[in-house]
Specification:
By secondary structure, this protein is α/β, with parallel strands linked by helices. It has 2 domains: 243 residues, FAD/NAD(P)-binding domain (3-Layer(bba) Sandwich), CATH 3.50.50; 121 residues, Flavocytochrome C3, Chain A, domain 1, CATH 3.90.700. The chain is built from 13 helices and 20 strands. It has a 6-stranded mixed β-sheet, covered by helices on one side. Strands 12, 13, 14, 15 and 16 form a 5-stranded antiparallel β-sheet that branches. A 3-stranded antiparallel β-sheet has the order 3-5-4. The structure holds flavin-adenine dinucleotide and succinic acid. One of its GO terms (molecular function) is oxidoreductase activity. Its cofactor is FAD. Pfam families: FAD_binding_2. This is FAD-dependent oxidoreductase 2 FAD-binding domain-containing protein.
Length: 421
Amino acid sequence: MERNKTVIIVGAGLAGLSCANQVLQLSSKHNVVILEKLGKAGGNSIKASSGINGAGTRHQKEQDSPAQFFDDTVKSAKGLGKPELMKVLSERSAQAVNWLEQDFGVDLSVVAQLGGHSVARTHRGGGKLPPGFAIISALSKPLEDKIWPNCRVLELIRGSNNQVTGVKYVQGSTQHELMGQVVLASGGFSGSKEMLMRYRPDIAHLPTTNGPQTQGEGQQMCGLIDAQLREMDQVQVHPTGFVDPADPSNGTKFLAGEALRGEGGVLLDAQGKRFVDELQTRDVVSRAIMDRDGDPTLVLDQRAYSRIQHHVDFYMMKGLMRSGTLADLKAEFGWTADPEVSTSSEKYYWGVVTPVVHFTMGGVETTAHGHVVDKTGHVIPNLYAAGEVTGGVHGANRLGGSSLLECVVFGRIIAESIVNS
Ligand code: FAD
Ligand code: SIN
Protein backbone atom coordinates (compact mmCIF):
# COMPACT_ATOMS: atom_id res chain seq x y z
CA MET A 1 0.00 0.00 0.00
CA GLU A 2 1.25 3.49 -0.85
CA ARG A 3 2.24 4.90 2.52
CA ASN A 4 0.95 8.47 2.48
CA LYS A 5 -2.41 7.44 0.95
CA THR A 6 -3.23 4.96 3.70
CA VAL A 7 -5.89 6.10 6.15
CA ILE A 8 -5.81 4.14 9.39
CA ILE A 9 -9.07 4.41 11.32
CA VAL A 10 -9.09 3.31 14.94
CA GLY A 11 -12.54 1.94 15.82
CA ALA A 12 -15.43 0.63 13.72
CA GLY A 13 -18.27 2.57 15.35
CA LEU A 14 -20.28 5.17 13.46
CA ALA A 15 -17.51 7.81 13.39
CA GLY A 16 -15.01 5.36 11.90
CA LEU A 17 -17.44 3.90 9.37
CA SER A 18 -18.66 7.35 8.26
CA CYS A 19 -15.11 8.52 7.70
CA ALA A 20 -14.11 5.36 5.83
CA ASN A 21 -17.09 5.42 3.51
CA GLN A 22 -16.65 9.10 2.74
CA VAL A 23 -12.94 8.67 1.96
CA LEU A 24 -13.78 5.88 -0.49
CA GLN A 25 -16.59 7.90 -2.06
CA LEU A 26 -14.30 10.89 -2.62
CA SER A 27 -11.06 9.22 -3.65
CA SER A 28 -9.96 6.14 -5.54
CA LYS A 29 -6.35 6.89 -4.59
CA HIS A 30 -6.69 6.31 -0.84
CA ASN A 31 -6.56 3.01 1.01
CA VAL A 32 -8.61 2.64 4.15
CA VAL A 33 -7.97 0.23 7.02
CA ILE A 34 -10.25 0.16 10.07
CA LEU A 35 -8.61 -1.45 13.09
CA GLU A 36 -11.28 -2.69 15.50
CA LYS A 37 -10.40 -4.38 18.76
CA LEU A 38 -13.67 -6.33 18.99
CA GLY A 39 -14.69 -9.19 16.72
CA LYS A 40 -17.20 -7.05 14.83
CA ALA A 41 -18.12 -3.48 13.93
CA GLY A 42 -20.62 -1.33 15.81
CA GLY A 43 -19.25 -0.15 19.16
CA ASN A 44 -21.86 1.73 21.18
CA SER A 45 -23.23 3.16 17.94
CA ILE A 46 -25.04 -0.06 17.14
CA LYS A 47 -27.05 0.24 20.39
CA ALA A 48 -28.54 3.65 19.54
CA SER A 49 -32.31 3.54 19.73
CA SER A 50 -33.68 7.09 19.67
CA GLY A 51 -32.11 8.37 16.48
CA ILE A 52 -30.06 11.05 14.77
CA ASN A 53 -30.73 14.79 14.70
CA GLY A 54 -31.25 16.79 11.56
CA ALA A 55 -32.50 20.37 11.26
CA GLY A 56 -34.43 21.25 8.11
CA THR A 57 -34.90 17.74 6.69
CA ARG A 58 -37.80 16.75 4.46
CA HIS A 59 -39.28 14.57 7.22
CA GLN A 60 -39.81 17.32 9.79
CA LYS A 61 -43.35 18.65 10.00
CA GLU A 62 -42.49 21.73 12.07
CA GLN A 63 -40.35 24.59 10.83
CA ASP A 64 -36.72 24.12 11.89
CA SER A 65 -33.36 25.54 10.88
CA PRO A 66 -29.65 24.99 11.60
CA ALA A 67 -29.67 28.31 13.50
CA GLN A 68 -32.44 27.09 15.82
CA PHE A 69 -30.62 23.77 16.39
CA PHE A 70 -27.40 25.69 17.08
CA ASP A 71 -29.21 27.82 19.68
CA ASP A 72 -30.59 24.71 21.43
CA THR A 73 -27.12 23.13 21.41
CA VAL A 74 -25.39 26.21 22.83
CA LYS A 75 -28.05 26.56 25.52
CA SER A 76 -27.64 22.92 26.55
CA ALA A 77 -23.82 23.29 26.56
CA LYS A 78 -24.06 25.92 29.33
CA GLY A 79 -21.00 27.96 28.32
CA LEU A 80 -18.69 24.98 27.79
CA GLY A 81 -17.56 23.43 24.50
CA LYS A 82 -16.58 25.12 21.24
CA PRO A 83 -19.37 27.02 19.47
CA GLU A 84 -17.55 26.71 16.12
CA LEU A 85 -17.93 22.93 16.34
CA MET A 86 -21.61 23.26 17.34
CA LYS A 87 -22.16 25.49 14.32
CA VAL A 88 -20.70 22.90 11.96
CA LEU A 89 -22.77 20.18 13.67
CA SER A 90 -26.03 22.02 13.15
CA GLU A 91 -25.25 23.36 9.67
CA ARG A 92 -24.33 19.93 8.32
CA SER A 93 -27.04 17.98 10.14
CA ALA A 94 -29.64 17.76 7.36
CA GLN A 95 -26.93 16.72 4.87
CA ALA A 96 -25.85 13.96 7.27
CA VAL A 97 -29.38 12.53 7.53
CA ASN A 98 -29.76 12.85 3.76
CA TRP A 99 -26.43 11.05 3.15
CA LEU A 100 -27.51 8.07 5.25
CA GLU A 101 -30.84 7.88 3.45
CA GLN A 102 -29.73 8.54 -0.12
CA ASP A 103 -26.35 6.80 -0.24
CA PHE A 104 -27.01 3.90 2.13
CA GLY A 105 -30.80 3.41 2.01
CA VAL A 106 -31.36 3.89 5.76
CA ASP A 107 -34.97 4.70 6.69
CA LEU A 108 -35.01 7.82 8.90
CA SER A 109 -38.53 8.98 8.22
CA VAL A 110 -39.94 9.13 11.78
CA VAL A 111 -39.13 12.24 13.79
CA ALA A 112 -39.42 12.64 17.58
CA GLN A 113 -38.71 15.49 19.99
CA LEU A 114 -36.14 14.72 22.67
CA GLY A 115 -35.24 16.70 25.81
CA GLY A 116 -33.83 20.20 25.33
CA HIS A 117 -34.82 20.45 21.65
CA SER A 118 -37.23 23.25 20.71
CA VAL A 119 -38.77 21.12 17.93
CA ALA A 120 -38.91 17.46 16.86
CA ARG A 121 -35.67 16.70 14.98
CA THR A 122 -34.48 13.23 16.05
CA HIS A 123 -34.86 10.83 13.11
CA ARG A 124 -35.35 7.07 13.23
CA GLY A 125 -36.93 4.47 10.94
CA GLY A 126 -40.56 3.37 10.90
CA GLY A 127 -39.81 -0.38 11.04
CA LYS A 128 -38.52 -2.74 13.68
CA LEU A 129 -34.81 -1.98 13.29
CA PRO A 130 -33.46 0.48 15.86
CA PRO A 131 -31.59 3.35 14.15
CA GLY A 132 -28.12 2.44 15.44
CA PHE A 133 -28.40 -1.10 14.12
CA ALA A 134 -29.87 0.01 10.79
CA ILE A 135 -27.16 2.64 10.23
CA ILE A 136 -24.23 0.44 11.26
CA SER A 137 -25.45 -2.48 9.11
CA ALA A 138 -25.76 -0.24 6.06
CA LEU A 139 -22.42 1.52 6.52
CA SER A 140 -20.48 -1.69 7.28
CA LYS A 141 -21.53 -3.41 4.05
CA PRO A 142 -19.28 -1.53 1.61
CA LEU A 143 -16.35 -1.90 4.03
CA GLU A 144 -16.28 -5.64 4.64
CA ASP A 145 -12.68 -6.11 3.48
CA LYS A 146 -11.51 -2.85 5.10
CA ILE A 147 -12.50 -3.70 8.69
CA TRP A 148 -9.80 -5.68 10.48
CA PRO A 149 -11.44 -7.22 13.57
CA ASN A 150 -9.60 -8.20 16.75
CA CYS A 151 -6.89 -5.58 16.14
CA ARG A 152 -6.32 -3.41 19.17
CA VAL A 153 -4.34 -0.21 18.68
CA LEU A 154 -1.81 0.31 21.45
CA GLU A 155 0.11 3.41 20.52
CA LEU A 156 0.53 6.26 18.05
CA ILE A 157 3.88 6.33 16.23
CA ARG A 158 5.47 9.73 15.80
CA GLY A 159 7.99 11.03 13.30
CA SER A 160 9.80 14.32 12.98
CA ASN A 161 8.07 17.69 13.52
CA ASN A 162 5.56 16.22 15.95
CA GLN A 163 3.73 14.40 13.15
CA VAL A 164 1.99 11.06 13.57
CA THR A 165 3.18 8.45 11.09
CA GLY A 166 1.17 5.37 12.05
CA VAL A 167 0.13 3.02 14.84
CA LYS A 168 1.29 -0.02 16.76
CA TYR A 169 -1.44 -2.61 17.18
CA VAL A 170 -1.80 -6.11 18.49
CA GLN A 171 -3.67 -8.97 16.83
CA GLY A 172 -3.80 -12.12 18.92
CA SER A 173 -0.42 -12.15 20.60
CA THR A 174 1.47 -10.53 17.72
CA GLN A 175 2.35 -6.87 17.61
CA HIS A 176 2.41 -5.02 14.28
CA GLU A 177 3.04 -1.54 12.92
CA LEU A 178 0.97 0.13 10.23
CA MET A 179 2.01 3.42 8.64
CA GLY A 180 -0.38 6.13 7.39
CA GLN A 181 -2.55 9.03 8.49
CA VAL A 182 -4.50 8.20 11.63
CA VAL A 183 -8.15 8.88 12.48
CA LEU A 184 -9.12 8.17 16.07
CA ALA A 185 -12.73 6.99 16.28
CA SER A 186 -12.39 4.87 19.40
CA GLY A 187 -15.34 6.20 21.43
CA GLY A 188 -15.71 7.48 24.99
CA PHE A 189 -14.80 6.15 28.43
CA SER A 190 -18.11 5.45 30.16
CA GLY A 191 -17.20 1.75 30.42
CA SER A 192 -14.02 2.45 32.42
CA LYS A 193 -14.37 2.69 36.19
CA GLU A 194 -10.72 3.72 36.30
CA MET A 195 -11.19 6.70 33.97
CA LEU A 196 -14.42 7.68 35.75
CA MET A 197 -12.65 7.50 39.13
CA ARG A 198 -9.99 9.81 37.72
CA TYR A 199 -12.27 12.40 36.14
CA ARG A 200 -15.66 11.98 37.87
CA PRO A 201 -15.28 10.01 41.09
CA ASP A 202 -18.66 11.28 42.31
CA ILE A 203 -20.55 9.28 39.65
CA ALA A 204 -18.16 6.35 39.13
CA HIS A 205 -20.42 4.11 41.24
CA LEU A 206 -23.41 4.49 38.89
CA PRO A 207 -24.27 1.75 36.40
CA THR A 208 -23.47 2.35 32.73
CA THR A 209 -25.21 1.89 29.38
CA ASN A 210 -21.89 1.44 27.58
CA GLY A 211 -20.22 -1.75 26.45
CA PRO A 212 -17.07 -2.86 28.33
CA GLN A 213 -14.92 -1.94 25.31
CA THR A 214 -15.54 1.76 26.05
CA GLN A 215 -12.27 2.37 27.89
CA GLY A 216 -11.00 5.74 26.62
CA GLU A 217 -7.96 4.29 24.90
CA GLY A 218 -7.93 7.02 22.23
CA GLN A 219 -7.89 9.74 24.88
CA GLN A 220 -5.09 7.93 26.73
CA MET A 221 -2.99 7.54 23.56
CA CYS A 222 -3.45 11.24 22.86
CA GLY A 223 -2.43 12.14 26.40
CA LEU A 224 0.85 10.31 25.85
CA ILE A 225 1.78 12.48 22.86
CA ASP A 226 0.76 15.76 24.55
CA ALA A 227 -2.40 16.25 22.54
CA GLN A 228 -4.86 18.57 24.23
CA LEU A 229 -7.71 16.96 26.16
CA ARG A 230 -10.61 19.18 27.18
CA GLU A 231 -13.52 19.08 29.62
CA MET A 232 -12.79 15.47 30.61
CA ASP A 233 -14.96 15.87 33.71
CA GLN A 234 -18.07 16.46 31.59
CA VAL A 235 -19.72 13.06 31.75
CA GLN A 236 -23.40 12.65 30.94
CA VAL A 237 -25.70 10.86 33.34
CA HIS A 238 -28.73 9.67 31.40
CA PRO A 239 -31.87 9.64 33.58
CA THR A 240 -33.34 6.35 32.43
CA GLY A 241 -31.52 3.02 32.43
CA PHE A 242 -33.88 0.08 32.99
CA VAL A 243 -33.66 -1.74 36.31
CA ASP A 244 -34.06 -5.39 35.31
CA PRO A 245 -36.33 -7.01 37.95
CA ALA A 246 -34.45 -10.29 37.40
CA ASP A 247 -31.01 -8.69 37.92
CA PRO A 248 -31.46 -5.31 39.65
CA SER A 249 -27.84 -4.80 40.70
CA ASN A 250 -26.25 -5.42 37.30
CA GLY A 251 -23.74 -2.59 36.65
CA THR A 252 -24.64 -2.46 32.95
CA LYS A 253 -28.17 -1.36 32.11
CA PHE A 254 -30.28 -1.43 28.99
CA LEU A 255 -31.10 2.13 28.10
CA ALA A 256 -34.73 3.24 28.27
CA GLY A 257 -34.36 5.37 25.15
CA GLU A 258 -35.31 9.00 25.45
CA ALA A 259 -37.72 8.54 22.55
CA LEU A 260 -39.99 6.74 25.05
CA ARG A 261 -40.42 10.07 26.84
CA GLY A 262 -40.32 11.95 23.54
CA GLU A 263 -43.37 9.99 22.41
CA GLY A 264 -45.30 10.63 25.64
CA GLY A 265 -43.84 8.46 28.43
CA VAL A 266 -43.97 10.04 31.91
CA LEU A 267 -41.89 9.53 35.06
CA LEU A 268 -43.70 8.81 38.31
CA ASP A 269 -42.22 8.88 41.80
CA ALA A 270 -42.89 6.46 44.65
CA GLN A 271 -46.28 8.14 45.24
CA GLY A 272 -47.31 7.96 41.58
CA LYS A 273 -46.72 11.71 41.01
CA ARG A 274 -44.87 13.37 38.16
CA PHE A 275 -41.95 15.41 39.47
CA VAL A 276 -40.13 16.87 36.45
CA ASP A 277 -40.78 17.96 32.88
CA GLU A 278 -39.70 14.76 31.13
CA LEU A 279 -38.47 16.72 28.12
CA GLN A 280 -36.04 18.85 30.04
CA THR A 281 -32.35 18.30 29.26
CA ARG A 282 -30.80 15.11 30.66
CA ASP A 283 -28.84 16.84 33.39
CA VAL A 284 -32.04 18.39 34.78
CA VAL A 285 -34.07 15.16 34.64
CA SER A 286 -31.22 13.10 36.16
CA ARG A 287 -30.74 15.62 38.97
CA ALA A 288 -34.48 15.58 39.75
CA ILE A 289 -34.34 11.77 40.06
CA MET A 290 -31.16 11.73 42.15
CA ASP A 291 -32.62 14.34 44.52
CA ARG A 292 -35.49 11.98 45.42
CA ASP A 293 -35.62 8.67 47.24
CA GLY A 294 -36.01 5.53 45.15
CA ASP A 295 -36.06 4.88 41.43
CA PRO A 296 -38.97 6.25 39.39
CA THR A 297 -41.26 4.34 37.05
CA LEU A 298 -41.55 5.20 33.37
CA VAL A 299 -45.16 4.81 32.21
CA LEU A 300 -46.61 4.96 28.71
CA ASP A 301 -50.32 4.94 27.96
CA GLN A 302 -51.81 3.28 24.89
CA ARG A 303 -51.40 6.40 22.73
CA ALA A 304 -47.70 6.77 23.54
CA TYR A 305 -47.21 3.02 23.06
CA SER A 306 -48.76 3.14 19.60
CA ARG A 307 -46.13 5.70 18.53
CA ILE A 308 -43.16 3.61 19.68
CA GLN A 309 -44.53 0.10 19.78
CA HIS A 310 -41.46 -1.75 18.41
CA HIS A 311 -39.22 -0.34 21.14
CA VAL A 312 -41.68 -1.18 23.92
CA ASP A 313 -42.31 -4.69 22.58
CA PHE A 314 -38.56 -5.29 22.60
CA TYR A 315 -38.20 -4.09 26.20
CA MET A 316 -41.17 -6.27 27.25
CA MET A 317 -39.58 -9.27 25.52
CA LYS A 318 -36.45 -8.59 27.59
CA GLY A 319 -38.53 -8.48 30.79
CA LEU A 320 -37.67 -4.79 31.38
CA MET A 321 -41.21 -3.47 30.92
CA ARG A 322 -44.60 -4.99 31.59
CA SER A 323 -48.14 -4.08 30.60
CA GLY A 324 -51.53 -4.13 32.28
CA THR A 325 -54.57 -2.15 33.30
CA LEU A 326 -54.57 0.88 35.57
CA ALA A 327 -55.55 -1.45 38.41
CA ASP A 328 -52.50 -3.67 37.69
CA LEU A 329 -50.19 -0.65 37.66
CA LYS A 330 -51.60 0.62 40.96
CA ALA A 331 -51.38 -2.82 42.55
CA GLU A 332 -47.72 -3.28 41.57
CA PHE A 333 -46.66 -0.09 43.32
CA GLY A 334 -49.24 -0.16 46.12
CA TRP A 335 -50.91 3.09 44.97
CA THR A 336 -54.40 3.56 46.34
CA ALA A 337 -55.07 6.85 44.51
CA ASP A 338 -54.79 7.12 40.70
CA PRO A 339 -51.25 7.92 39.55
CA GLU A 340 -50.61 11.08 37.51
CA VAL A 341 -51.29 9.55 34.08
CA SER A 342 -54.27 9.76 31.74
CA THR A 343 -56.73 7.41 33.45
CA SER A 344 -58.79 6.60 30.35
CA SER A 345 -56.24 4.37 28.62
CA GLU A 346 -57.15 0.71 28.12
CA LYS A 347 -53.65 -0.44 28.86
CA TYR A 348 -50.39 0.90 30.32
CA TYR A 349 -46.75 -0.09 29.79
CA TRP A 350 -44.17 0.50 32.52
CA GLY A 351 -40.68 -0.21 33.84
CA VAL A 352 -38.51 1.00 36.72
CA VAL A 353 -35.61 3.23 35.66
CA THR A 354 -32.48 4.64 37.26
CA PRO A 355 -29.77 7.19 36.29
CA VAL A 356 -26.84 5.72 34.34
CA VAL A 357 -23.45 6.93 33.09
CA HIS A 358 -24.03 7.24 29.36
CA PHE A 359 -21.71 9.55 27.42
CA THR A 360 -18.47 11.48 27.77
CA MET A 361 -18.75 15.03 26.44
CA GLY A 362 -15.07 15.70 27.11
CA GLY A 363 -12.21 14.27 25.09
CA VAL A 364 -9.57 15.07 22.51
CA GLU A 365 -9.52 18.67 21.27
CA THR A 366 -9.98 19.09 17.52
CA THR A 367 -10.36 21.87 14.98
CA ALA A 368 -13.51 22.27 12.89
CA HIS A 369 -11.69 20.25 10.20
CA GLY A 370 -11.13 17.32 12.58
CA HIS A 371 -7.40 17.81 13.21
CA VAL A 372 -6.19 16.95 16.71
CA VAL A 373 -4.34 19.85 18.38
CA ASP A 374 -1.51 19.78 20.89
CA LYS A 375 -1.26 21.59 24.21
CA THR A 376 0.06 24.73 22.50
CA GLY A 377 -2.94 24.79 20.16
CA HIS A 378 -1.02 23.63 17.08
CA VAL A 379 -2.37 20.96 14.75
CA ILE A 380 -0.62 17.58 15.11
CA PRO A 381 0.07 16.63 11.48
CA ASN A 382 -1.62 13.42 10.22
CA LEU A 383 -3.77 12.93 13.33
CA TYR A 384 -7.55 13.36 13.27
CA ALA A 385 -10.37 12.45 15.67
CA ALA A 386 -14.17 12.17 15.40
CA GLY A 387 -17.08 10.94 17.49
CA GLU A 388 -17.19 10.40 21.22
CA VAL A 389 -13.40 10.35 21.57
CA THR A 390 -13.45 14.12 20.99
CA GLY A 391 -14.46 16.95 23.32
CA GLY A 392 -16.06 20.32 22.66
CA VAL A 393 -19.08 19.52 20.49
CA HIS A 394 -21.58 19.31 23.35
CA GLY A 395 -20.18 21.30 26.27
CA ALA A 396 -21.77 20.46 29.61
CA ASN A 397 -24.75 18.49 28.29
CA ARG A 398 -25.23 16.63 25.00
CA LEU A 399 -28.65 16.77 23.41
CA GLY A 400 -30.15 13.36 22.61
CA GLY A 401 -29.54 12.39 18.98
CA SER A 402 -26.47 14.60 18.60
CA SER A 403 -23.90 11.86 19.09
CA LEU A 404 -24.79 9.80 16.05
CA LEU A 405 -24.89 13.12 14.26
CA GLU A 406 -21.41 14.23 15.32
CA CYS A 407 -20.03 10.86 14.16
CA VAL A 408 -21.43 11.34 10.68
CA VAL A 409 -20.70 15.06 10.37
CA PHE A 410 -17.11 15.02 11.64
CA GLY A 411 -16.30 11.59 10.18
CA ARG A 412 -17.19 12.99 6.76
CA ILE A 413 -15.36 16.26 7.35
CA ILE A 414 -12.16 14.41 8.23
CA ALA A 415 -12.47 12.42 5.00
CA GLU A 416 -12.71 15.71 3.10
CA SER A 417 -9.70 17.11 4.97
CA ILE A 418 -7.62 14.02 4.16
CA VAL A 419 -8.61 13.77 0.52
CA ASN A 420 -8.06 17.49 -0.07
CA SER A 421 -4.71 17.65 1.75
P1 FAD B 1 -18.32 3.74 19.24
O1 FAD B 1 -19.54 3.49 18.46
O2 FAD B 1 -18.35 3.41 20.67
O3 FAD B 1 -17.16 2.94 18.51
C1 FAD B 1 -15.84 2.94 18.98
C2 FAD B 1 -15.16 1.66 18.50
O4 FAD B 1 -13.76 1.75 18.76
C3 FAD B 1 -15.65 0.43 19.27
O5 FAD B 1 -16.06 -0.55 18.35
C4 FAD B 1 -14.42 -0.02 20.06
O6 FAD B 1 -14.35 -1.41 20.23
C5 FAD B 1 -13.29 0.50 19.20
N1 FAD B 1 -12.03 0.71 19.92
C6 FAD B 1 -11.84 1.34 21.11
N2 FAD B 1 -10.55 1.37 21.44
C7 FAD B 1 -9.89 0.73 20.44
C8 FAD B 1 -8.52 0.43 20.21
N3 FAD B 1 -7.57 0.76 21.09
N4 FAD B 1 -8.18 -0.23 19.08
C9 FAD B 1 -9.13 -0.60 18.18
N5 FAD B 1 -10.44 -0.35 18.35
C10 FAD B 1 -10.82 0.32 19.47
N6 FAD B 1 -26.59 8.70 20.37
C11 FAD B 1 -27.48 9.28 19.53
O7 FAD B 1 -27.16 10.27 18.91
N7 FAD B 1 -28.72 8.75 19.39
C12 FAD B 1 -29.13 7.64 20.07
O8 FAD B 1 -30.25 7.16 19.89
C13 FAD B 1 -28.22 7.04 20.97
N8 FAD B 1 -28.58 5.95 21.70
C14 FAD B 1 -27.65 5.34 22.49
C15 FAD B 1 -27.99 4.17 23.18
C16 FAD B 1 -27.04 3.52 23.96
C17 FAD B 1 -27.42 2.27 24.69
C18 FAD B 1 -25.72 4.03 24.04
C19 FAD B 1 -24.68 3.36 24.87
C20 FAD B 1 -25.39 5.20 23.38
C21 FAD B 1 -26.35 5.86 22.60
N9 FAD B 1 -26.02 7.02 21.91
C22 FAD B 1 -26.92 7.60 21.08
C23 FAD B 1 -24.67 7.54 21.94
C24 FAD B 1 -23.95 7.07 20.69
O9 FAD B 1 -24.38 5.79 20.30
C25 FAD B 1 -22.43 7.00 20.88
O10 FAD B 1 -21.95 8.04 21.63
C26 FAD B 1 -21.77 7.07 19.52
O11 FAD B 1 -22.35 6.13 18.69
C27 FAD B 1 -20.28 6.89 19.62
O12 FAD B 1 -19.80 6.54 18.34
P2 FAD B 1 -18.25 6.39 18.10
O13 FAD B 1 -18.10 5.93 16.70
O14 FAD B 1 -17.55 7.61 18.53
O15 FAD B 1 -17.82 5.24 19.12
C1 SIN C 1 -31.58 7.67 24.16
O1 SIN C 1 -32.18 6.92 23.38
O2 SIN C 1 -32.09 8.14 25.17
C2 SIN C 1 -30.18 7.96 23.86
C3 SIN C 1 -30.11 8.98 22.81
C4 SIN C 1 -28.77 9.60 22.87
O3 SIN C 1 -27.95 9.24 23.71
O4 SIN C 1 -28.57 10.52 22.07
